[in-house]
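Standup, Tuesday
Yesterday: got the pipeline producing structure tokens again.
Today: sanity-check two examples.
Blockers: none.

Example 1:
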Amino acid sequence: MGVWAAAPARTILVVGDSLSAEYGLRRGSGWVALLEKRLATESIKATVVNASISGDTTSGGQSRLDGLLKVHRPSHVIIELGGNDALRGLPLQMTQDNLLRMTRAAQESGAKVLIVGMQVPPNYGTDYAQRFEALFSTVARERRAGLVPFLLKGIADSADPMKLFQADRIHPREEAHPTMLANVWPELRKLLP
């Protein structure tokens, strides 16, 4: 009679900004909290560590990542950063380089990585917007990581997007977060054995 091996413990580390840190929301209502519930519903044993900080940039995330990897030893890392880089007008190459370094460090620690992409509003100009959007897929392709092309798909590009955003017109309302999880889940699921 054989002994069944238990499924390996999984830790999913989310390194993000205010979109993942429940800015302006009730605790437990953001997409990361909804992810925990979805994993339980699907009977996938995993611990979710939300290390997201409102206002964080790729530079901030990169500076914190080594410590987070050492402490949590994640099997999966979701990187949801870059939006604040654009809001601050930081150089696109710097954002891309930071995401590459973060992805490489996470992979070298043994984690599978999911890059979560973002887009900027049209007032940034077509050239900048296209180059910003493309940097996420460039990093994912170069590092063979998973990719969510646009976290706010179905929200920012909906028929009436302002009803899904808080008064600041930047942060999604609570009712938008299930859509955000729906954008992330299929790509994360591919990385879960």
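Example 2:
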Amino acid sequence: MALQIFRTKKIVSHSDSNDGLKRCLSAWDLVFLGVGAIIGTGIFVLTGIAAATQAGPAIVLSFVIAGLACAFAALSYAELSSAVGGCGSAYGYSYAAFGELIAFIIGWDLLLEYGISVAAVANGWSGYFQNALTALGIPLPDALTKAPVLGGIINLPAAAIILLLMGLLVMGVKHSAKANNTMVVVKLITISIFIGIAVFNVHPDNWHPFMPYGWFQTLPDGKTAGVFAGASLVFFAYVGFDAVSTAAEEAKNPQRDLPFGIVTSLVFCTVIYIIVSGLLTGVVHYSELNVSSPVAHALTLLGYDWGAALISTGVIAGLTTVMLVLYYGLTRIIFAMSRDGLLAPFFSKVNRNTQTPVRVIVLCGVIIALIAGFVPLGELAELVNIGTLAAFVLVCLGVIVLRITKPNLDRPFRTPFSPLFPVLGMLSCGALMGFLPSITWLRFIIWLIIGLIVYFSYSIHHSKLVKE
């Protein structure tokens, strides 16, 4: 038994590992996937809230620190995506480095991370969509925009957008990528308009005091504040670049393009976050930014009502791309686990016409739509944070382990200054896990226990490695 749970999967070449999926994504498609996943609520919501409650104008430094922590993980993802490949992301890398049990645990963890993320973002998208309908004078009744426990019947917009994305993904990954690219352009245009307006309305006095809470301090109410506390909050604005690695088997040249897509999207989004957060705290005093849509609020205060309306359009487009990319990543991880025998073979069937795993896409779409429509997520969304950080830690460790166990493995991209950068990634992501509340840890442990039951009752007996 002990030997079985630590058996590792043989690393196969990228060209031998697509099992019928269509290789059609270019390097820039992958970059747009990363930007689509990263730029969402983080830039339109989190920047203002973190500035108002955590770091003040020094939120710029929080984004730099969080960006560095993500960069260490991203470089590790880049190395393993080019060397190990597969559409399973951190699950597949763990299978090659640590063995089957650890791989299953991280795969199971990723199912929760991606699934809850999509449902949570759908709830946020529904709110902005309802605001847009209200502005047009055709609001939906509360019964159709709230979950039953909140007094409604169903959150219809949240469920509907999931089903719409389901249809898009069923059509094929190239159609999905084109839709994603279009929506990314829309939100980048809205961000550019904000920057163009804000740069001429900066009042340097708003940047004083620059660090009202210092680097880190505990407030009288027991909450933490400061640059480092702000970094732990805004870190989750970057989450999503790992979804790029799930496109390994649909990329035209994965060994070259995956590292490019992962690193380029993260660097680009980090620069955008720093510029927007700096300008936002320059045009409006940070104490006024603790609102649900701080960027739009800032433009309203400046008298640009049309700009605020445009930002709302950008938010809707931004949240749609986040859902699309994470939903895509979820289906590919389930597909990879099923192909390895750790989940039922039902999930690894590829439709001949669309060259997509239609069964997984439809099943996930129906389940997530039901969750988004009938469950108010609330604190459950914090499970996304801990799952992501756990995956980042293991990927960084995986680089170190594979450098030792498989020194001759072909690595088209190599993490610089290894093992220093992977170790820094493990330490920074591990430290950020410590900021999460105990209830999040408890829920995470319960989910993992359920996963262990599935593994020892089914997966260990049906693994492809048993047959080999």
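Quick observation on example 2: The radius of gyration is 22 Å. The chain has one domain: 22-467.
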